[in-house]
Amino acid sequence: MKTLLLLAAVTLLCQAQQRGLFPAVLNLASNAVITANATCGEKGTEMYCKLVEHVPGQPVRNPQCRTCDLHSSDIKEQHPITNAIDGKNTWWQSPSIQNGMEYHYVTIVLDLHQSLDFSKIVNSSVTFVHRY
């Protein structure tokens, strides 16, 4: 029995050393409710462009433009806010500010259904990474 307990303790210690002092990553968004006050294609078909090689202050070269329509039967044209947390290779698309300056700032709300204490938050997207 002592051998079994010693073996279990050594196994746990080895597993802890492999991870170090870093806790397991937990995706809190997987069970959350997410909403946005605006989404591309919400009011009908509209165009958006990915600024893949855009350098601020320079003309846009080689824009990749597509259409989005939240009500389209083609799922590839739909980019709802739920895509931001579904864990798939999909994304949420905001409306273009060419449709109005009210789309310059869009609000996203992520309701986790609980109060949490955080030691670190990493916010990342294709063009932005910030640690809090």
From TrEMBL:
The keyword Ligase does not apply. Residues 1-16 form the signal peptide. The keyword Disulfide bond applies. It comes from the Eukaryota. It holds the Pfam family Laminin_N. GO terms for cellular component: basement membrane. One of its GO terms (biological process) is animal organ morphogenesis. Gene3D superfamilies: Galactose-binding domain-like. Residues 17-132 form the Laminin N-terminal domain. Keywords: Disulfide bond, Laminin EGF-like domain, Signal. Coiled coil: none annotated. This is Laminin N-terminal domain-containing protein. GO terms for molecular function: extracellular matrix structural constituent. InterPro entries: Laminin/Netrin_ECM, Laminin_N.
